[in-house]
Amino acid sequence: MIEAYIGVDVGSVSTNIAVINGDSEVLASSYIRTHGRPIEAVQRGFREIVGEMDDSAKIVAAGTTGSGRYLTGILIGADVVKNEITAHAVAATREIPDVQTIFEIGGQDSKFVLLRHGVVTDFAMNTVCAAGTGSFLDQQAARLGIPIEQFGDYALKARSPVRIAGRCTVFAESDMIHKQQMGHSLEDIIAGLCEAMVRNYLNNVVKGKEIASPVVFQGGVAANIGIKAAFEKALDMDIIVPEHYSIMGAIGAAMLARERMERTGGQTRFKGFETSEIEYKTLSFECDGCSNRCEIIEMLMSGEMIARWGGRCGKWEVLPEAKRAKAS
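-> structure tokens emitted (328 positions)
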């Protein structure tokens, strides 16, 4: 039997799942679109994972991360629920042990993490504007009629990248249209957009913090070689894109689950891949007990309420053991 560990990273755009062994090698993985339905996305991902996994592998610990980590933790029975910063840092140090800087750009947000001697010393996140994220790249690729997978290739063919206003999605798009009307080539416009995204990230997320090599670039946008090239041009240093760049959060969650199980022992709370076939539903209501007007979330399994959370005072909360797992 192979002891395996599963990590689930649920974000607003993508849901990523990774199964690793005791040496942190990836045994199976899934990267799918969330489409605003995190429960269904996790269930679809589980069905994909089952098809990839070796029959001799057994899940002995589970972890969750991402914006949907608490909901997912309840859904799958997580042993560890951790924030994205920690999960991405743990996974990055696995790939590049001496990493000092992490750039992470996803579909709807971006992160910047500083590490020294394997410990996170500073971080920043941008969740306000989508101008520097993957969703904006997807929109522009669709508008230009170019597959997003080819976006970076176009950027590398540019002869003279034009300057695009990248601080805001509306301004960036209108500026790109203006440059098209002026007759600039698609290659130069796309390269200009990549450079604008990098400027936006460095100005709005990094904000003058020290960037020390080695630098690791992860998240879905790391697939865009045009963005990687723009970072290297702006910083005059090499940027490392790890092999599993798109699922690093999930790998980190799986590693944290393994560490917890090795430290504490005991039985995993993981409910098994059968959760992919169970009917779950979430509802919400606004509590009028005080001026806070908290939004209370309920989770139902086959019509039975199994968890409730979201209030500041805790009077409504019904929390299974998975929700009480160490969370931050």
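The chain has a mean pLDDT of 86.
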